[in-house]
Amino acid sequence: MRVNHVGEVCAQALYTAQAMATSDSALRAKMERAAREETDHLAWTRSRLDELGARPSLLNPLWYAGAFGLGLVAGRFGDPVSLGFVVETERQVEAHLQGHLERLPAGDHASRAIVAQMKDDEAAHALAAQQEGAVELPGPVKAAMRAAAKVMTTTAHYV
Ligand SMILES: [Fe+2]
Ligand SMILES: [Fe+2]
After folding, report:
1. What's 87's domain CATH number?
2. Which segments within 35-158 are labelled E, that is strand?
3. What spacing in Å lies between the alpha carbon of 108 and ligand 1's midpoint?
4. Which of the four, 77, 86, 107, 154, has the lowest number of CB atoms within 10 Å?
5. How many domains does the chain fold into?
């Protein structure tokens, strides 16, 4: 759940940075709407962490800063690429959450409900970004994103 919380910290940073980067006000409004759902996710994962007596990642300021920088970089490539980055990010998060659902104890209904709802929301975010005109990112970029996500999830598991 700490890893999921870090993911949502990063989602805040990414959407905020990408909303700042676009010059299309309609797109900015849509990104801000997605960011509000990510704020819900952030709150759910945080309160579940508290219920479980676990602490959030100590590195959250670092995750936020890194994701914010990435969001700005993606934004500089223009809206279609920026949206492509959203699509790929949300897909990878969705896949991660699916994996987490499979590992979560069947009896942990509270965690399962949170993860399942977030997974649905992330899929909707990916679809929305796709409909806004996202381009498919090149394979090596996707692979680099997966590698970065792996470092993040592995580290956040412990710290
Ligand atoms: Fe989320
Ligand atoms: Fe999302």
Report:
1. 1.20.1260.10
2. none
3. 20
4. 107
5. 1
Closest CA to 153 of 145, 69, 135: 145
Which conformational region is residue 133 in: left (phi greater than 0), alpha (psi within -120 to 50 degrees), or beta? left
Ligand lying closest to the C-alpha of residue 124: 2
- CA–centroid distance, 99 to ligand 2, in Å, is 16
Q: Which domain holds residue 87?
A: 2-158
What spacing in Å lies between the alpha carbon of 38 and ligand 2's midpoint? Answer: 6
- Which tokens go with 137? 């990112």
Q: How confident is the model at residue 46 (pLDDT cuts 50, 70, 90)?
A: very high
pLDDT, one tens digit per residue, over 74-123 is 999 999 999 999 999 999 999 999 999 999 999 999 999 999 999 999 99
Closest to 122 measured CA to CA, from 35, 13, 25, 32:
35
What's CA 41's distance to the chain center, in Å? 10
Separation of CA 89 and ligand 1 centre (Å): 10
Mean per-residue pLDDT for 29-52? 94
Ligand nearest to the CA of 9: 1
